[in-house]
Amino acid sequence: MVSEGAAVSGTRTAPERAGVALASLMEFPDTPDRLRRLLEQALVFAGASFAGVYTPGDDPAQLCLAESAGLPRTLYGLRDCYPVTGGFPVAEAHRTGRPRWLGPAELAGCPDARRTPSPDFSLAVLPLGPAGAGCLLAVGEHPGGFGTDDRVCLELIAGAVSVPAPAAAGETGELPENAFSLAMDTGRVEVGESILRLFGIGRDDFDGRVETLLGRAVPEDLPALMSVVEADHMSIGDRELEFRILQPSGPPTWLRLRGRLLPGGEGRTARLVGTVADASTLRSDVTDVARVQRLAAALAMAGTVKDVGQAVVAALRVPLQADRIALAELENDRLVVTVLDPPEPEAWPEVWRSEWRTEWPDAPVRAMPTLAAALREGRARIWPAGSPLEPALAEVGPGGLAVLPLPAGGRMAGACLIGWDSPHEFAPDERALLTACAGLAGQALLRAHAFDAEHELVGMLQRTLLPRRLPRLPGAVAVARYLPTTAGLEVGGDWYDVIPLADNHVALVIGDVQGHNAGAATLMGQMRTALRAYAAEGHAPDVVVSHANRLLLDMETDLFATCAYVDVDMEEGTAWCVRAGHLQPVLRHPDGTAEILRAEGGPPLGVLAQAEFPMTPLRLQPGTVLALTTDGLVESPDADMDTGMDRLARRLSAADPAHLGLVADALLAGAHRADDVALLLVRYDGMAVRPLRESWTVWRVPEAVRHARRFTRRTLRTWGVSQDTLDAALLVVSELVTNALVHTGGQVRLDLSLVNHRLRLAVADASPRSPVKPTSIGWEATGGRGILLVEAVSAAWGTVPVSGGKQVWADLVPDG
Fold this sequence. Notes:
- It is a single chain.
- By secondary structure, this protein is α+β, with helices and mostly antiparallel strands.
- Helix content is 32%, strand content 26%.
- It contains 23 helices and 33 strands.
- A six-stranded antiparallel sheet has the order 3-2-1-6-5-4, sandwiched between helices. A six-stranded antiparallel sheet has the order 14-13-12-17-16-15, sandwiched between helices.
- A hairpin with a 5-residue loop joins β7 and β8.
- The chain is elongated.
- Residues 239-291 form the PAC domain.
- Keywords: ATP-binding, Hydrolase, Kinase, Magnesium, Manganese, Metal-binding, Nucleotide-binding, Phosphoprotein, Protein phosphatase, Transferase.
- Pfam families: HATPase_c_2, PAS_3, SpoIIE.
- It is an enzyme of class 3 (hydrolase).
- It comes from Streptomyces capoamus.
């Protein structure tokens, strides 16, 4: 099977990883700490020790530090403000709009530069757009200064930084929904709609007084709030505060206030402007007992191991502001991952991607000795940024990594890995939360395994009847999924298959046997084997399905089966579809539109002896996705089949076909699971190199072999085959055609093909008996040497069944 992990090769460079991280941050431009998180990327990807943004302040003659990340600025002698007309690099880059890259020697000649803390001190100053827009300043302590990749990363970060004017909210007259503007002299406040909703106040009921809002706060939080809203206590610059407001019922709600005091003067009153947001999912304080209680409640409702993992991710990733979480179980020496968040393969290290399987990846514990030691010790381990770890773990959390062994039943059931991209400070209360969650998750896993035990038997039986891996296809990518029903210990009859055929044809099969029991599963295995055998014999699609129908009738079973069979010509991009009572295929075209095909169909297999199964032609453009599924995905108690098919088509249209495995997972999300589900997706890309092919019908005439040799000579010369290869090919053709004419009856056909510098010579006849290579030949024997000659001059040879007969083939590899 070609899985989603196969689409990623190699390791991303630092600029590429920085671009991915920045793109993720840019998706949420209204995030309160977006600027700081952007600056943290300079620490992670460019190796900077300090990063800050300087922008014009309320005094246009000064450049002020708007935000910073990393070590304290005072360590490097950096100021809060610099005069725009000064000689420090920050001012020069701001005035000219040109970047500056300075090492210790250049800084020594800078009149405004203070003493550097180390001989390797270097400075990077990049303008934030045109001259006069401010600049990004980064400090490094690497020998030689910032390298090429570091500079590219810093340029990306400078391009992503955008600092809005702090007074914009109060000057436009139209506040954003989450913004406020407070007049410090009168206490009158203008607020956006979302703030009123957070405080539970209607627009018509709000009198514009800040005291009305303060009256909703928890009394214990009022002193901190008053220090912000009273001018005597508020200093110039940014402030951040979290506080609670009372609710009509239930616990208080946490809110986060970010504000900046704008000084008055020249007829203007001092104002506090900023934003207020719901901090219930953003708070850095993770000691709240209610969080552990909510996790315990979620784990109590988790029925399966996967449910446990998802509950842990929901409880930890957002509160800890982690970038990735993996929950894995320990099976012998394998770490079998059950939940990955985020699910994209590109977000995980190479060793994880290289082990990516059909549904979930797994990684060997022996490849991560640090993790193996943590599991043996059985206690939570935390490694801050820069800790020496093996790549498989270091890339999970370059800014910090926490590993939580999950105890269950006196043993280690697995581990939870939590990683950060930006340097993360691990507070004691975070450690307490992690330890508590580990114990809860371990016990929940023990309970979930009891629930999963009966379904594991079902899954194991089902997996033995389904393909273990799908083959790699020429010019296409295939992904399959199977979900057993969760309604009791029931074995389903859904199946799928991908069958490579001759001449770059591929058969795509999906089917469903009536019922949920061992008999249905057994019949499913028999039907899958029969269809594969009929297809391998070279029959046309309608003949393959007709043979399967007759076989099921001969079994004298009370069960019937539905089936969809699609024969795709990978060279031409054409296909033939045959349906036997099954759902219509769904096509997603390269332009993103999706359609439910109106392919003709026959009755289910095993119903009528004289049934007809018409073929419907299809045309596949490169980029087309073909979806075959069973009714468990589209039919549920609250939606009929037509509604479900329409929903499937819409989801397929909205999906990104570049990662077919993620498309399959998205289509299966929310499946009802009252019935088992099979899904087969194929993306047709077209073959990069199309073979050269020619055929010749050999008539039974005295000079038949000579005619076949002449056809071969002319064809191969046209293809530019070398003389040595041509001589060998003529010998092979002579022997194979002679054997077919002498030992068989009926029609004989010679096929020539050349693909990727490999020449195939094939002779088809009407006899199913394969040629036998003699074990020994005496000097007086008059025959039996033909196959030995073919074997001697060929790179490989063999036979395959073709429509009641056979085809004998031999491959030659031309020199050069």
